[in-house]
Specification:
This protein is an alpha/beta fold. It has a single domain (3-160), classed as Glutaredoxin. The protein has helices spanning 2-27, 68-77, 90-102, 121-127, 154-160; strands at residues 62-64, 79-85, 110-116, 134-138, 144-149.
Length: 164
C-alpha cells in the first residue's frame, strides 16, 4: 500500500510539472503545449489560431473572443454563448476535442465564443464567473441570459442556450 501511495504521489508531481511547463510555454510566446493543439492568447484577439485553443477551421459556429462588442453584434442574429476555457483544464480539453470532431453540428442559429479564462478578468467579474468550463449565454446588449457548467459537447451546449 505504501508503494502504491508513493507511486501516486510521484505521478501527481509529474503531472503538476507538466502542467507548469505547458503554462510557462503558453505565456512565453505562444509555443504549443505538449498536445500541440493549445496556443497562447490574449482575450481580445480575433485570430482563431491564437485563441486558448486553436479554433482554425471550426467554422462560423465556434469563434475566439474578440471583444464584447463583437459578441453582442453576433447576438443580434444568433444565440450566443461565452465558453470560459483554460488550456490546463481537463474538462475544457475534452470539450475542445468534441468541438474539433463536431463543429459542423453547431446549429446555424448558435455561436460559441471561446474566452481565455486566464486572461478575461473583467469579463469574468461582469458575469460572475469563478471557475473555468463555465458557459454564459448572452443577449444582444450583453445581458446574461443563463449561466451553467458541465456541458462537454456541441449538442449539450446547443440544448442549454435559450431559444429565441
Amino acid at each position: 500500500m505504501k508503494k502504491a501511495l508513493a507511486a501516486s504521489v510521484v505521478l501527481f508531481a509529474l503531472a503538476g510539472l507538466m502542467v507548469a511547463q505547458d503554462m510557462k510555454k503558453d505565456t512565453s510566446g505562444g509555443a504549443p503545449s505538449s498536445s500541440g493543439s493549445m496556443m497562447s492568447a490574449t482575450a481580445a484577439t480575433a485570430d482563431p489560431a491564437k485563441a486558448v485553443f486553436d479554433l482554425t477551421g471550426l467554422g462560423p459556429g465556434i469563434v475566439p473572443f474578440s471583444g464584447e462588442a463583437g459578441a453582442q453584434r453576433m447576438a443580434l442574429d444568433r444565440r450566443t454563448v461565452y465558453f470560459f476555457a483554460a488550456s490546463w483544464c481537463p474538462t475544457c480539453n475534452a470539450t475542445y476535442k468534441d468541438f474539433k470532431a463536431n463543429f459542423s453540428k453547431v446549429p446555424k442559429d448558435l455561436v460559441i465564443v471561446v474566452v481565455d479564462y486566464d486572461k478575461a478578468a473583467a469579463l469574468k467579474t461582469k458575469y460572475g464567473v469563478t471557475y473555468q468550463h463555465t458557459y454564459v449565454a448572452i443577449g444582444p446588449k450583453g445581458e446574461k441570459l443563463k449561466t451553467w457548467s458541465g456541458s462537454m459537447s456541441v449538442a449539450e451546449i446547443a440544448k442549454n442556450v435559450p431559444k429565441r
